[in-house]
Design brief:
heterodimer, A: about 250 residues, mainly alpha, two-stranded antiparallel sheet, globular, B: about 325 residues, alpha/beta, six-stranded mixed beta sheet, 10 helices, elongated, binds adenosine-5'-triphosphate, binds magnesium ion
């Protein structure tokens, strides 16, 4: 393993994050605050509790997940797409590093950034509503696993994309809708039975459910199922990464 | 001594189906400056790409100091620095950060003193904290060279390093290359400025349409193909060449009959100039002025590629 190379890539990516620190932090903090104002005040005045949890508090894990998924995918996909776009990828390809080290560097940095943002949103929420974390270790585990898994997904998208459009399409057209429909703002049990079934096809339901369980011990599905599903995604992404590594897909001519 | 790079049976066909390299066999000697010349699209960049790892070969092997560049790519690539043809740099990084990044990427521990030296050698020291996007094209080119040198490579590939660099800085750049060579670094360069190859190279390879059509010591090449011409401006026009002149087969008369050109081999034991002049004297041909010109590498090169294009040479 060329640890120095991993370190160099990681630092490079973190420096990129630092350059855009204000907008990276401000945007999610502002949108989180807006969610609380809109959902918490407008809807929360009608729905006071969900599954026995104060509605404002109930949506906190979903909000964190929403940002975590989006940021992981966007950071990692942009991180690897940009060198392809500008041509600076020649340096990664001609350095004594393997694809695995490239992945660790980029995915590590993207996951770090989205975890930091997740924690910032958690802190922001605290200002608006009471938040209780029943299982802090599980909470952190879900946070890290999800960040890594979706950063891997983002990395795959960045390799696959051959234009900025494709880069935008997946987060916008897939991640956001699935998160909204994945129980970020409601318990799946409030849906009619047919839609409940449909919902369980949505992978993100399992992530949000497990994450929420680590806060309030309420869940749409058993927590072991959530953990299993998270690991399934992780393995699936690693599998695709392995395949890209074997074939050099879209990296070299 | 063994070649430091051995390329055997190398072919590359791009996904478009275009055969950019056809069965290349080439050895690069340790410590030499090798100039790879060829017209646009000949396959120079592709060949460099395959050796450095940015392009995957369709067939054939490359070994770098005994390490196969695919199965033992780490050991092979550690030895190589690459300056790409395209000006591909980050925009927002500082010069110092990007050069340090390159060093890290190649697994070398930090060495600020060494990076300082490179930046000074390349006249970039006063720009070290500037963002790369604020630099001029020629400065960016030098940043790319600094990046390539950051990990102290044993082999340096320079793909048109002087494109867009002004005369003064070009001289500095070649001085850096000479110093590197003196320190034992093997250098492979491409350039369209043939005088540069003539100045710098120990050996010259010519590639055309994906095939190496010639590899030769520069001196040998100049000797073999280098011819000198003696041009005599005549006082009185001649209607035709007198058949009894010495060396008439090497002589030619200009169209309007006022200029005689004698072509001779610089390396031949006797050039025949004395006898030619004596014979002209005897024939009563007098001249106003005379000059000699030597064919440059450029002419040799153009001749070769032209031959190849017309399906002449091998
Ligand atoms: N990615 C690619 N896909 C398809 N064809 C390519 C690709 N890259 C290069 N080629 C083709 O391969 C041939 C060789 O290109 P290459 O860049 O190696 O030439 P070169 O000798 O470096 O030329 P130049 O002097 O213009 O830099 C060209 O005909 C080019 O069109
Ligand atoms: Mg080229």
């Amino acid at each position: 393993m060329n640890w120095r190379a991993i370190h160099a890539i990681y630092r490079f990516e973190m420096a990129r994050t630092a350059r855009t620190l204000m907008q990276s932090i401000l945007a999610p903090v502002i949108s989180t605050s807006l969610y609380f104002v809109v959902f918490g005040a407008a809807i929360g005045s009608r729905i006071t509790t969900m599954e026995g949890v104060d509605y404002g508090s109930f949506i906190v894990p979903g909000l964190i997940m929403l940002t975590l998924l989006m940021q992981s995918v966007m950071n990692a996909s942009f991180g690897i797409y940009f060198p392809k776009f500008t041509g600076t990828i020649y340096e990664l390809l001609s350095a004594p590093i393997s694809f695995i080290e490239i992945v660790i560097g980029y995915v590590g940095a993207a996951a770090t950034k989205s975890i930091i943002l997740g924690l910032i949103i958690l802190a922001t929420s605290w200002l608006f509503v009471p938040v209780k974390i029943a299982h802090p270790v599980w909470m952190i585990s879900f946070l890290v696993l999800t960040a890594v898994t979706f950063s891997l997904l983002g990395f795959i998208i960045g390799i696959w994309a051959d234009g900025f459009e494709k880069l935008q399409i997946v987060p916008l057209l897939i991640i956001t809708p699935l998160t909204f429909l994945g129980g970020a703002f409601y318990s799946v049990s409030v849906l009619p039975p047919f839609w409940q079934v449909v919902t369980f096809v949505n992978p993100i339901v399992y992530l949000i459910s497990g994450f929420r369980w680590s806060f309030y011990e309420v869940a749409d599905v058993n927590v072991s199922v959530s953990i299993a599903m998270t690991l399934v995604f992780l393995v699936a992404c690693l599998g695709i990464i392995w395949w890209i590594f074997r074939t050099g897909y879209r990296l070299k001519n | 001594m063994h070649d430091i790079i051995t390329i055997s049976g190398l072919s590359k066909t791009y996904a478009t189906g275009f055969p950019a390299l056809k069965n290349i066999n080439l050895g690069i000697r340790r410590g030499e400056i090798f100039a790879l010349l060829g017209p646009n699209g000949a396959g120079k960049t592709t060949l460099i790409g395959v050796v450095c790892g940015t392009v995957t070969a369709s067939a054939g092997t490359v070994t770098v100091d005994g390490h196969d560049n695919v199965t033992d790519f780490r050991a092979a690539r550690e030895l190589i620095g690459l300056v790409p043809q395209e000006l591909t740099t980050d925009a927002f990084e500082s010069v110092w950060a990007t050069v340090s990044f390159s060093r890290g990427l190649f697994g070398k521990p930090k060495n600020p003193a060494y990076i300082e030296k490179i930046l000074k050698d390349l006249s970039l020291w006063d720009k070290k904290d500037n963002k790369i996007m604020t630099l001029s094209g020629g400065m960016k080119r030098r940043v790319l060279i600094a990046k390539a040198l950051s990990h102290e490579p044993k082999i340096l590939f320079l793909d048109e390093p002087t494109a867009g660099v002004d005369v003064e800085l070009r001289k500095d750049m070649w001085q850096v290359v000479r110093d590197l060579r003196a320190a034992g670094v093997t250098i492979i360069l491409t350039t369209h400025y043939i005088e540069e190859a003539e100045d710098m190279a120990d050996r010259i390879g010519v590639i055309s349409k994906g095939e190496i059509i010639l590899v030769e010591e520069k001196k040998e090449l100049m000797r073999k193909l280098g011819q000198k011409r003696l041009t005599l401006q005549l006082q009185e026009k001649l209607a035709a060449l007198p058949a009894n002149l010495f060396g008439v087969s090497q002589l030619s008369l200009s169209k309007d009959g006022d200029e005689l050109t004698y072509t001779y081999d610089t390396q031949a034991e006797r050039t025949g100039i004395t006898r030619l002049l004596a014979s002209l004297n005897e024939a009563g041909i007098r001249f106003r002025d005379l000059s000699t010109t030597q064919s440059s590498l450029e002419e040799i090169f153009v001749g070769l590629v032209h031959q190849d294009r017309n399906g002449g040479a091998k």
